[in-house]
Design a protein that fits this description.
binds pyridoxal-5'-phosphate; alpha/beta; seven-stranded mixed sheet; 15 strands; Aspartate Aminotransferase, domain 1; four-stranded antiparallel sheet; globular; Aspartate Aminotransferase, domain 2
Length: 465
Amino acid sequence: MTKWTGRRTAGPEHHVQVDPRVAPGGDGLVPLLSIPDGQLSADAAYQLVHDEAMLDGNSRLNLATFVGTWMEPQALKIYTETVDKNMIDKDEYPQTAAIEERCVRIVADLWNSPEAETTAGTSTIGSSEACMLAGMAFKRRWQAARRAEGKSTEAPNMIMSAGVQVVWEKFCNYWEVEPRYVPVADGNLLLSAESMLPYVDENTIGVVAILGSTFTGDYEPVAEIAAALDQLAAGGGPDVPLHVDAASGGFVAPFLQPDLVWDFRLPRVHSISTSGHKYGLVYPGVGWVVWRTADLLPEDLVFHVSYLGGDMPTFGLNFSRPGAQVLLQYYTFVRYGREGFRKVQQAAQDSAVFLSSAIGAMPQFELLSDGTDLPVFAWELAPSVTNWDLHDLSRALRERGWLVPAYPLPPDCEDRTIMRVVVRAGFSPDLARLLLTAVEQSVAWLDSLESPLPRPDDHPPTYHH
Ligand SMILES: Cc1ncc(COP(=O)(O)O)c(C=O)c1O
């Protein structure tokens, strides 16, 4: 949300000037902060919006984002053909609805649901909505169980690492659940079975494990966390469900680490969420959440819409949202298959590991992760470097067109700054080599400085998780 603090004025600085070659005849001045009285031609409006968006830079060089920035032309063709479809209009677009349903089955099968053909699941606008839905199911099930026992439902809590993505903070705030953040210890940024257990009590609606960490790309030990919760319940303690926030790992681990047991093979894992628009290889606007079995999603959270004269259950925060991204997701499933997904993710991992080993070998840096879980790696500055920091390096790389964020670690480690690279589909070995050259040149320039760069009291706004 933007809070506008300036005054509105009619001066030319509060207008944009349309290029006179595309707006002949008119003065081409368009107000910035109110709807213009008159019209622009479609060409002039296109030029105006296109030119401003151009300043965003090149999304392929954006190594901060986990979100898809490249799809092949055939996918783009489907996108433009189906951009008008509203996902909620199940009755009007029954085939898009059928494909969404098929995708839920495919994802449930990919994550080894024992009831993949019938279990509950839905597409969402992204992982954030998917996480919220999973959290709501936890809360509602916990409330029902407590009420059945005549116990209070006043003080639900949820357990997660202090390094969770901001969506979990939002979930707890919006749905009035106490977040219990397990501090990240020096050297270990991940939730573990031992660190999580002391936070569990009878008011715990669930535990969240992350596959993988937004900070470093490393996977949390889901199977160990599940086993600890199994043991707790078997010993007469609270029976606490586990959600896996597999925003990125949901479409990586099944292909690159098929032997890693993190999904519905563990009965303790009640639900899993992912972003189709991250390693699901789709442009922004699609996520998935699936429950292990249908009974784990409380029926009273489900709404019903009309579908081919019949009834279609839906569970979501949004009503209208794009249907095209769901079709694009299906495109990736049939286009790549398991073999193609493995190759695409392996290529990203090869580039990540190539870069992390080269950057880790530089005396100025110390690696925090190497890209062998997610194709994501992070590093910090060696203590011997005192004339510059990672924010300076981030700025120097930006001058060369690369967007590589520097940001603080989560609370308790926030005095440590790290830099992270997310390698995604479309980041070729050639681009990896060019990025490495840019890092080496930027470091050589920073090292050549005779005194520290001037420091503003505060660095510009840091990257926000
Ligand atoms: C672990 C994790 N969970 C949730 C999210 C939110 O995902 P989305 O942007 O799809 O809403 C992210 C985004 O980076 C993430 O890394």
